Amino acid sequence: MIFVTVGTHEQQFNRLVEYMDKWAETHEEEVIIQTGFSTYEPKFAKWQKFFVFKEMDKNVKAARIVLTHGGPSSFIAPLQIGKIPIVVPRRKEYDEHVNNHQVNFCREVAKRQKNIIEVEDVEKLGDVLDKYDETVSGMTNGVESNNKKFCDEIEKIVEEMF
């Protein structure tokens, strides 16, 4: 299953929603889209304007691929559970946001952290989806558990005491 979320920003993201709906028409893999304030209503993908947190979390966990807009909360959620998200930043020129901060931010995260797949042109999404498993096989999500770090440090202290 592919889960797509466009976040809760009050501008449409029809460019992504429509592309993924048309992708769903010609592919067997289930596509679920959280459409937010988009005006395009999917015809082939399952969709809902918004999901409560529990449903969002369930969809992110169940998805083979999580595809998000460029808002940090949306792409950090899959990273926290070990998944590499495909991130399509909203763009001002398509009236998807007030400026291009998502484009700039996502470019930097992709360059520095190397733990997201940034796609600015939705027409390239099909190829990215086709090559997803191959692409992520060489990536790490770069998110470490603070709980693990804490436990490792406590273990070192205890070992030094005895």
- Tally of alpha and pi helices: 7
Helix share of residues?
40-55%
Number of strands: 6
Model regions low in confidence, pLDDT < 50 over at least 5 residues: none
Distance between the termini: 50 Å
Beta content: 5-15%
Q: What structural category do the secondary elements indicate?
A: alpha/beta
Rg, please? 18 Å
**Shape type:** elongated
Which series of helices and strands comes N to C? Answer: EHEEHEHEHEHHH
Strand order of the largest sheet: 3-2-1-4-5-6
Instruction: Give the integer mean of the pLDDT values.
Output: 91
Largest sheet at a glance?
Answer: 6 strands, parallel
Give descriptors for this structure.
6 strands, 162 residues, alpha/beta, six-stranded parallel sheet
Tell me the layout of helices and strands.
Elements: E1 2-5, H1 14-25, E2 31-34, E3 46-48, H2 53-62, E4 65-68, H3 72-80, E5 86-87, H4 101-112, E6 117-118, H5 125-130, H6 132-136, H7 146-161
Parallel strand pairs: 1-2, 1-4, 2-3, 4-5, 5-6
